Amino acid sequence: MKSDIHPDYHTITVKMTDGTEFTTRTTWGKAGDTMHLDIDPKSHPAWTGGSQQLLDRGGRLSRFQKKFSGFMKDGK
């Protein structure tokens, strides 16, 4: 096995948005650093299943729906 080709893994603390913390091994930062998360699985709707509203004020979605509204309706 070649020497000096593997990254330096060390332990850091990860602080979630709700204040909870855990330790993990990573190549990010320096040993003993703390990573503060802005978005995590406890707060992001992609993981929590939160409702997402689609707002469109005459933009791309409206143009797409207008362009393809009759597509495949008349069997042609």
Description:
- The chain is of the alpha+beta class and 76 residues long.
- It is built from two helices and three strands.
- Strands 2-1-3 form a three-stranded mixed beta sheet, with no helix packed on it.
- A hairpin with a 5-residue loop joins β1 and β2 (21-26).
- The radius of gyration is 23 Å and the shape is elongated.
Number of helices: 2
Strand share of the residues? 15-25%
Average pLDDT, rounded to a whole number, is 82
Q: Biggest sheet, open or closed, and with what strands and sense?
A: 3 strands, mixed
Radius of gyration in whole Å, from Cα?
Answer: 23 Å
Low-confidence stretches are none
List the helices and strands and how they pair.
Blueprint: E1 10-15, E2 21-26, E3 34-36, H1 45-48, H2 60-67
Spell out the key features of this protein.
76 residues, alpha+beta, 3-stranded mixed sheet, 2 helices, 3 strands, 16% helix
In short:
This protein is an alpha+beta fold and 76 residues long. Helices cover 16% and strands 20% of the residues.
